[in-house]
Write a structure and sequence with these properties.
Residues 89-98 have a biased composition (Basic and acidic residues). With 297 residues, this protein is α+β, with helices and mostly antiparallel strands. It is built from 11 helices and 6 strands. It has helices spanning 2-42, 69-72, 76-89, 104-107, 147-162, 176-190, 194-197, 231-239, 254-257, 271-280, 283-291; strands spanning 128-130, 144-146, 168-171, 211-215, 245-247, 265-268.
Length: 297
Amino acid sequence: MIREARGKTTGLAERARRLRRRAEVLAAILVLFSMPLLWSLSQQVRPTPINALAQPVTRAGSLPQAPGPAQTAATQTDVARTDAAARTSRGESVEVAHEGPPTKGCDDPRVLVDRTHALPADYAPANLVSLRRLGVPVLGRDALLRREAAENLEHLVASAAAVGEELTVASAYRSYADQRASHARLVSVYGRRADKVSASPGHSQHQLGTAVDFTNAAVGYEVRRGFGYTGASRWLAAHAHEYGFVLAYPLDGEAKTGYGWEPWHYRYVGADVARRIRESKLGLQGFLLREGVLPRC
Ligand SMILES: [Zn+2]
């Protein structure tokens, strides 16, 4: 009886050992087959926090360079976007569909675009919508902004109007080609001094589709510093952040931003980020240097 029981125990132990070995082999095969998948997942491009990098780098990983012939060559998409801009200036409503893979790094509201960080020439934001169609007063036939920014701007302008402050949009989305043309125009008039007031192509926040320049009757519908002394400007300073907009180039901010005071230029970053910028007291540039993402797209 005892021997029989011992034999049974040995048999069971042997079967358990065999099962365990089979399980180990199976696990090893699974690991082997999942390696390529894990590797490809680890290669996915993610926006890089600015503070992770000591040197400003472009998406190619090199130091920023002035736009050369390769960047200025018009591509098919450039032509399509220029056409869209032309249709907009004729008063037609257009939505520019985004082509190609998602561009998270540049669509992120915290993307850093400044004197040393440029957007690629072929970057255009998705979901550009007509401000005129939303009832936002604009100079000229129309202006475009990303949908979320446009809808918040609509509320902002209506709230200002409710307390008697007029806000009209002088300029909103500008494509790389638009910026190149307007910058070249200014350079032809002011020479190198144009760089003080106008970003070179790729370096303009207007290419993001989230920046607006305001004006109103008090300054003759011009874009000038006198706007900074109007009631509308004071209202913006107190309330723009509630709608997700922040002043990008404040008074005495030139050493940080590279641009003089532009009381008319606001950028949409969303109410949450706008609140955090306000609380941090760093200003948009300082905050984005700390918590922004690089324009990799
Ligand atoms: Zn501007």
